[in-house]
Amino acid sequence: MKKEGQITYPNKIPQLFLGFFVGLALWGLTLLVLLVFN
After folding, report:
1. Torsion of CA 22, 27, 31, 36, to 10 degrees
2. pTM of whole model > 0.85?
3. Membrane-spanning residues where (predicted)?
4. What whole-number distance in Å separates Cα of residue 28 and Cα of residue 16?
5. What are the angstrom distances between the C-alpha of 5 and each of 16, 17, 18, 23?
6. What is the pLDDT of residue 11?
7. CA-CA distances (angstroms) from residue 23 to 6, 16, 17, 18, 38?
8. How far is CA 18 from the centre of its chain?
9. In angstroms, rounded to a whole number, what is the distance separating the alpha carbons of residues 28 and 38?
């Protein structure tokens, strides 16, 4: 895994996808907690 060269473009898509996935997981976890503790 090289960190130099084309780090600007190929790293943007996975970062966006990872951020979206983490946000979705956090949202789902919050919903689950709300459902369980209601």
Report:
1. 30
2. no
3. 16-37
4. 18
5. 20, 21, 21, 29
6. 61
7. 26, 11, 10, 8, 22
8. 3
9. 15
The residue type at 16: L
Name residues whose C-beta falls within 8 Å of residue 22's C-beta, 6 or more positions apart in sequence.
none
pLDDT in tens, 1-38: 555 655 555 567 788 888 999 999 999 999 999 999 98
Tokens of 25: 């997981």
Q: What is the 3-state secondary structure (H, E, C) of the chain?
A: CCCCCCCCCCCHHHHHHHHHHHHHHHHHHHHHHHHHCC
* pLDDT for position 33: 96
